[in-house]
């Protein structure tokens, strides 16, 4: 079989020259990005075309983030169109926590896509050497057709790519010379859209959902990822098996946290994360949940967001907000604005969390200039408004210090409160993790451990 990595007609060989017309599985196509193109721009991330990471829009998406009231904005986001090949899109949202969480989230945002790309590029290069032919050439069409039909092998390849990329990312954070991730970390929800294929990997409690038409042609919300929190039974079981502890504090019984076996610290409110190396020996992992979904014509758009959104808005509410947005390029901002309003209404005494939203429209279309004119706004004005109101300045020198971590930030309406404290013991079949609560993700900043071994 050839080395095609897609079940669609968008397979590519990364060594092709930029702009060269090639035959991919029998289809004539002009490439736009290459392996050398991406690798030569590692030090020039902001200049890569079709890659956006600040408030704005692209050809098929819009993104927006807003700082909460807990200090520096620790959320990061990215949409990278024509990633690896023309027509392939990478999207991600990353929610940092801890003293250096904002730096961890940005590091993951900038590095993880390149690691994913590097793995797939290396895989194709090895395949090409072993077969001695171009996997996507016209002479190999039968091999490519065989690869297209072999969905299990495609799933296996992409799953391996996500697993190894996440593992390499966490390893790089552990050995980073200046970024201390001992008590800091980040979530990640990432998707790759390749033709009609959607590949997803996630850790932590950032979430992806999709809007799709049901049999009555009404939009419904489909949750694509699971919020990987410590009260998820299988996550709690793993943490306990590794001698970590999972329980909730009396003043916030809704929030299960991960604690060291010998100390009531650090109180991490998620079961999987990049960084947080003080807990990596005690059950917190960076292995992503991977899934593959085939997109149909009933599927309309995808929304990725940090928990600052999901804590106050349901999946259905987010779908309604995006679908009702008069201009697609403002959809992400409208979701964030709605979340901010809900924070003020539901939790007036609490500190609003950071919010980051990515909206990816599956038909690949955005607004035309006539759409802006109908709404009485120009595209230039829209872009200016996004840049001025999103608090996306990434200068480390300009960042304010994170406020001291306290234990009284969790709030929840009285009808939602649960009297049980500790781990929920139940079957996790069909577990969705939809209920959100507002909280500090990590309660205590630990000093570095001494060499002394704690007693039993």
TrEMBL record:
Pfam families found in the cross-reference section: PP2C
Domain of life: Eukaryota
Cofactor: Mg(2+); Mn(2+)
The protein's Enzyme Commission number: 3.1.3.16
UniProt-listed PROSITE patterns: PPM_2
Stored SUPFAM superfamilies: PP2C-like
Group of enzyme by EC: hydrolase
Catalytic reaction annotation: O-phospho-L-threonyl-[protein] + H2O = L-threonyl-[protein] + phosphate; O-phospho-L-seryl-[protein] + H2O = L-seryl-[protein] + phosphate
Keyword Glycosyltransferase: no
Compositional bias per record (Polar residues), positions renumbered to this chain: 131-141
InterPro entries with a match to the protein in the record: PP2C, PPM-type-like_dom_sf, PPM-type_phosphatase-like_dom
Segments for region (Disordered): 126-146
A single BP term in Gene Ontology: regulation of intracellular signal transduction
Entry keyword set: Hydrolase, Magnesium, Manganese, Metal-binding, Protein phosphatase
A molecular-function term among this protein's GO annotations: metal ion binding
Domain PPM-type phosphatase: 60-362
Hydrolase recorded as keyword: yes
Secretion signal span: none
Family statement: Belongs to the PP2C family.
UniProt name for this protein: protein-serine/threonine phosphatase
Organism: Lactuca sativa
Lineage, top ranks: Eukaryota, Viridiplantae, Streptophyta, Embryophyta, Tracheophyta
């Amino acid at each position: 079989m050839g080395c095609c990595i897609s079940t669609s007609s968008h397979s590519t060989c990364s060594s092709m020259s930029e702009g060269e017309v090639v035959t991919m599985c029998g289809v004539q196509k002009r490439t736009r990005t290459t392996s050398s193109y991406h690798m030569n721009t590692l030090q020039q991330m902001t200049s890569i075309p079709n890659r956006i990471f600040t408030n704005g829009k692209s050809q098929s998406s819009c993104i927006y983030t807003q700082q909460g009231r807990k200090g520096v904005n620790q959320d990061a986001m990215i949409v990278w169109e024509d990633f690896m090949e023309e027509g392939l899109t990478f999207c991600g949202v990353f929610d940092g926590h801890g003293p250096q969480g904002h730096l961890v989230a940005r590091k993951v945002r900038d590095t993880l896509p390149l690691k994913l790309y590097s793995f797939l590029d290396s895989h194709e290069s090895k395949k090409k050497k072993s077969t001695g032919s171009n996997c996507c050439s016209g002479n190999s069409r039968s091999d490519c057709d065989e690869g297209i039909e072999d969905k299990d092998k495609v799933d296996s390849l992409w799953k391996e790519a996500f697993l190894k990329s996440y593992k390499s990312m966490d390893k790089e954070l552990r050995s980073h010379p200046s970024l201390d991730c001992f008590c800091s970390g980040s979530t990640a929800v990432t998707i790759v859209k390749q033709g009609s294929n959607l590949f997803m990997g996630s850790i932590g409690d950032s979430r992806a959902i999709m809007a799709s038409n049901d049999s009555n042609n009404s939009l419904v919300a489909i949750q694509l990822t699971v919020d990987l929190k410590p009260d998820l039974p299988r996550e709690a079981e793993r943490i306990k098996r590794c001698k970590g502890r999972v329980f909730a504090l009396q003043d916030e019984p809704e929030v299960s946290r991960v604690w060291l076996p010998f100390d009531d610290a650090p109180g991490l409110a998620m079961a999987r994360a990049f960084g947080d190396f003080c807990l990596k020996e005690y059950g917190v992992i960076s292995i992503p949940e991977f899934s593959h979904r085939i997109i149909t014509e009933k599927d309309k758009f995808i929304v990725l967001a940090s928990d600052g959104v999901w804590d106050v808005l349901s999946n259905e509410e987010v779908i309604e907000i995006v679908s009702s947005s008069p201009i697609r390029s403002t959809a992400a901002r409208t979701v964030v604005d709605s979340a901010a309003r809900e924070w003020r209404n539901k939790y007036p005494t609490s500190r609003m969390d950071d919010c980051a939203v990515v909206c990816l429209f599956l038909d690949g279309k955005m607004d035309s200039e006539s759409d802006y004119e109908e709404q009485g706004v120009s595209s230039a004005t829209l872009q200016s408004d996004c840049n001025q109101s999103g608090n996306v300045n990434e200068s480390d020198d300009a960042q304010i210090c994170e406020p001291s971590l306290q234990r009284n930030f969790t709030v929840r309406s009285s009808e939602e409160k649960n009297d049980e404290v500790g781990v929920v013991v139940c079957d996790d079949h069909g577990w969705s993790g939809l209920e959100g609560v507002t909280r500090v993700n990590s309660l205590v900043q630990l000093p570095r451990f001494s060499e002394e071994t704690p007693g039993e």
